[in-house]
Amino acid sequence: MTHYQDDIAAIQELKDANGSGWNAIDPESAARMRAQNRFRTGLDIARHTADIMRRDMAEYDADSSAYTQSLGVWHGFIGQQKLISIKKHLKSTNKRYLYLSGWMVAALRSEFGPLPDQSMHEKTVVPALIRELYSFLRQADARELDLLFTRLDAARAAGDETAAEFIQSQIDGFQTHIVPIIADIDAGFGNPEATYLLAKKMIEAGACAIQIENQVSDEKQCGHQDGKVTVPHEDFIAKLNAVRYAFLELGVDNGVIVARTDSLGAGLTQKLAVSREPGDLGDQYNSFLDVEEISEAELRDGDVVIQREGRLLRPKRLASNLYQFRPGTGEDRVVLDCITALQHGADLLWIETEKPHVEQIAGMVDRIREVMPDAKLVYNNSPSFNWTLNFRQQAYDQLVEQGRDVSAYDRDKLMSVDYDDTELARIADEKIRTFQRDGSARAGIFHHLITLPTYHTAALSTDSLAKGYFGDEGMLTYVRDVQRQEIRQGIATVKHQNMAGSDIGDNHKEYFAGEAALKAGGKHNTMNQFS
């Protein structure tokens, strides 16, 4: 028997045991409602999706072509439509996740209004969005199963046993829309206790993977902005431990921690690390500081100095009371950050870079893997990069290395539309097309994500609609570019009442009230125009 049939039988036993008061309860209807609500709590989701991620990580270790992907989403509906689209076009959600971007939470979900990515938004918005996303994904399950149940009833009513068996097999083998969410906790929103408390809320909402960065919490900047300030390793390790304890307390024993380093672009630190002996973590962190050697006679009131190998070293302190690292130390600090994070409980790494360049990433990962052979990355395929310009420049450099004539190109102006139909542009676009595959094979990238793509797609599509609708084309713009495309491409939202749950509600009304149910989906419902 299938799980669905087992549920029908179990509910029938309950009905029999409870006597005539349950006469109106139909066991199959109740079993259908159970099937449509497979995940009853966020912790059920977190445990299920953590298992998925751990399986995917093991598969990637065995085969680097088995990488995973996600798109950042800022609303439950956007996440739902993404998964519906994946199932429609690609037939499986396997190795496809969701990403919850702190940038988009700040820009789109804060009660303060649009904010920069500087941890100024309410921390409660993050778990709230996780709950919202999974509410919409659960509803996607319920809607798709409801359509299957409707088809099953129609096949039975028509006496078509073959069709009924086929539809039943689709119900039994149904693949849920519930997938892992990698959720951004920024720099932890405070001290380690604050990080632990927020991590708990995120996990309870369903997050199986939490990404945390090594910036100072109250000075946090977007990874692609200037002015980033990192913390000593001991501070970051405490927050890694806080997240792990949150997972363990809630019984998500295989929860995933993504340790992000911003050191490649961060030239500042708020404080010196504590060093207890030469060569320890604190000493290594401090060794990257920009210092000047001084004598005791040169000491001034208020100076902070480090003694190393008998020398007095005065770190250069800015007017902001921050200390700066020596230029050119970013990659070395990244490598130390990553090794240290993996040695202290992180599962995956995130190296924030200033450009998408496979060999740059690989150079750091190669060094990390000398110490931690199974090191794997989550990588930000960021909209902050000018992908066209970066890859045209890489293509230009490749042609130069090959001894090709590049006199027709100006390397500093390769973004120009004049180059769109050139051989160089085609080489660049092919590099972009294979970037994820190449990065996973060469640079240890297990998971590729775009942090805020749906921010940009919402703006682009809205611009197109507004331009035509408020211009001369009027309603034609909507009909031609939106509704007609929904119909032609089979986008389920063309039946927006159904997508919002109207048919599910009608079926529930029938379960509850039988023939007396007042349903919305009758012949006068205009949604029938899209049958």
From TrEMBL:
Spell out the molecular function terms from Gene Ontology.
lyase activity
Q: Does the keyword RNA-binding apply?
A: no
Q: Reaction(s) catalyzed by this protein?
A: D-threo-isocitrate = glyoxylate + succinate
For this protein, the record's InterPro entries field holds:
ICL/PEPM, Isocitrate_lyase, Pyrv/PenolPyrv_kinase-like_dom, Pyrv_kinase-like_dom_sf
**Which Pfam families is this protein grouped with?**
ICL
Q: Which UniProt keywords apply?
A: Lyase
The UniProt entry, under CDD domains, shows:
ICL_PEPM
Q: Which NCBIfam families match?
A: PRK06498.1
Spell out the protein name for this chain: Isocitrase
Species source reads: Microbacterium soli
List the taxonomic lineage: Bacteria, Bacillati, Actinomycetota, Actinomycetes, Micrococcales
